[in-house]
User: Which sequence fits this backbone?
């Protein structure tokens, strides 16, 4: 069994707790026009045997300080669902801390919950039609997975990438909060990620048009959005 890997390397605290060996898996089912890793959208890429990946993680354990471990991100890691599930299960058997970063669209995500120590899930939009119009996939599975995670897990970190013209108004914040406050518990946290153009050059280098315009979120708008979530008792964090 193989997993297609775009890149790998260590990162501290940005992709889960502690020092982590992070695998960026190839392939994504969304086509977000602001994506900072557009080269990861295709499933084509270098394959690594699952056993080799597991061996790498075992040999790197001395580097997993401050509660670190292995994180799978993307692309979208659940695009390679079977391989991901196998590797997560094997790492858990070896008592290695696991984390994934996911867009939350895979309806089989809850089957992985017991294999994931730290779950990071994007929540790009509460309105399914709006999300589909921008990314090609709706929000229904995402919302169902958030509900399931809130019921079955003690921990969940949600991330909203704030994009002006897409989801970064005070009214949008109220829409997010209205959904979240009904499932919120103390083990959940929310991180707001303001739009950046780190991926622009990659789009151009890969012969693709970068379509984002006027997408930056002003300080004033960001402050207003934060106030909406704070007023609803939704815990905001920064990593």
Assistant:
């Amino acid at each position: 069994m193989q997993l297609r890997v775009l890149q790998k390397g260590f990162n501290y605290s940005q992709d889960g707790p502690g020092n982590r060996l992070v695998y960026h898996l190839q392939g994504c089912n969304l086509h977000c026009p602001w994506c900072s890793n557009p080269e990861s959208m295709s499933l084509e890429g270098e394959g690594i045997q699952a056993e080799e990946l597991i061996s790498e993680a075992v040999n790197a354990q001395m580097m997993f300080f401050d509660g670190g471990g292995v994180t799978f991100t993307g692309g979208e890691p659940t695009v390679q669902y079977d391989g991901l599930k196998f590797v997560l299960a094997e790492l858990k058997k070896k008592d290695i801390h696991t984390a994934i970063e996911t867009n939350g669209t895979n309806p089989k995500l809850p089957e992985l919950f017991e294999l994931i120590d730290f779950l990071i899930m994007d929540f790009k939009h509460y309105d399914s039609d709006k999300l589909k119009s921008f990314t090609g996939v709706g929000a229904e599975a995402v919302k169902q997975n958030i509900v399931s995670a809130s019921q079955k897990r003690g921990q969940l970190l949600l991330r909203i990438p704030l994009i002006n013209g897409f989801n970064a108004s005070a009214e949008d914040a109220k829409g997010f909060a209205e959904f979240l406050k009904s499932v919120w518990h103390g083990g959940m946290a929310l991180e707001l990620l303001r739009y950046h153009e780190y991926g622009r050059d990659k789009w151009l280098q890969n012969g693709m048009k970068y379509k984002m315009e006027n997408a930056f979120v002003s300080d004033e708008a960001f402050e207003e959005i934060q106030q909406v979530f704070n007023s609803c008792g939704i815990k905001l964090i920064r990593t």
In short: The chain has a mean pLDDT of 95. The first strand starts at residue 2 and ends at 12. The two ends are 34 Å apart (CA to CA). Strands lie at 2-12, 19-25, 47-49, 69-73, 98-102, 118-122, 156-162, 188-194, 236-237.
